[in-house]
Amino acid sequence: MGLFDLFARRPGLAEGLEAWKSTPGAALLDVRTPEEFRSGHIPGAENLPLDRLDSIQAPTETPLFVYCHSGARSAQARRMLEHAGYAVTDLGGLMGYRGPLER
Known about the structure:
This protein has three helices and four strands, in the order H-E-H-E-E-H-E. By secondary structure, it is an alpha/beta fold. It has one domain: Oxidized Rhodanese, domain 1. Strand 1 (27-30), helix 2 (34-39) and strand 2 (46-47) form a beta-alpha-beta unit. The longest helix is centred in the C-terminal third of the chain and has 12 residues, at 72-83. The mean pLDDT is 92.
């Protein structure tokens, strides 16, 4: 993480989820571990843990929205996926999320 990454603007989780829902063909990726994902995730999210991002099957034209628990892993995921040619929106972490979760 570079110094300027600390100041990068990312949408709030609620704002970002609205953008995901209104973006045709977009994917919502939860980059936490499978155990964390099973404990509760945003409805519609797919689990693709940070350590398995290289196995992504989506075409590079697919807009991606990523989140994790605190925002650290989603920031890493954004950088890795952008390097691979994807358009990525980092939604940060679930810590302040008060919406419904699936289990």
